[in-house]
Amino acid sequence: MSFIEINDIKKVYSSKQTKTYALDGININIEESDMVAVMGPSGSGKSTLLNILGLIDIPTSGYYSLAGHDFEKIKPSTIHKFRNKHIGFIFQYFALLKDYTVLDNVLLPLTYRKMPHKERIIKAKEYIHKVGLSDHINKIPSELSGGQQQRVAIARALVGEQSLILADEPTGNLDQRTGEEIINLLCKINEQGKTIIVVTHDINVAKKCKSIVTIVDGKISNNFKPDAMIL
């Protein structure tokens, strides 16, 4: 069994007169410690797929399992606990709490863990150090550059030792040099055994990944040409 199995996933938005297929029969297998880029034109279904993988949204039909867990068999009331334990998120616009320090932002995923407060602090500082921000631990987001804010977001995604990291355009709001630093950091994290899925419009980012999945009109496409992508 693969670490991630997606079989015939469909996501349909219905109105009285029409049905819109955001995803239409997606099949993907991803192995543990893989790093996969998801590419496609705007509106192709990339973000919908990421939301389903992250248990933020549920498919209309189809099968999804993560690390052997079949989500048809997990109670809806426990989904948020599973997500917090197993999945970390990195967003294009960082999604940091503006009045919280670097340390406080990284501590957030540990809030509901059964862990002494002192241990939470130690773990958060460990991951802040890993992303190179120990000297900025007491700063708030507005005192950081875009690249530094994304590093905080990466530390926050990793601190709970989640097995899957989902990154939605993690370099999309950064200049080229800073974007390269961030994707190289993600590659280093992947080399340490973390499974990472990156939605990106940047072919240079995608080439850093071990494999590329392309989606067009809600379906996996083998004929997709990134250079012709309409953003």
Automatic annotation (TrEMBL):
A Pfam family assignment: ABC_tran
Transmembrane segments: none
The keyword ATP-binding is assigned to this record: yes
Entry protein name: ABC transporter ATP-binding protein
Residues annotated as domain ABC transporter: 4-231
Keywords: ATP-binding, Nucleotide-binding, Transport
GO MF annotations, alphabetized: ATP binding; ATP hydrolysis activity; transmembrane transporter activity
InterPro entries registered for this protein in UniProt: AAA+_ATPase, ABC_transporter-like_ATP-bd, ABC_transporter-like_CS, MacB-like_ATP-bd, P-loop_NTPase
GO cellular component: membrane protein complex
Superkingdom of origin: Bacteria
Gene3D superfamilies with a match to the protein in the record: P-loop containing nucleotide triphosphate hydrolases
UniProt record similarity statement: Belongs to the ABC transporter superfamily.
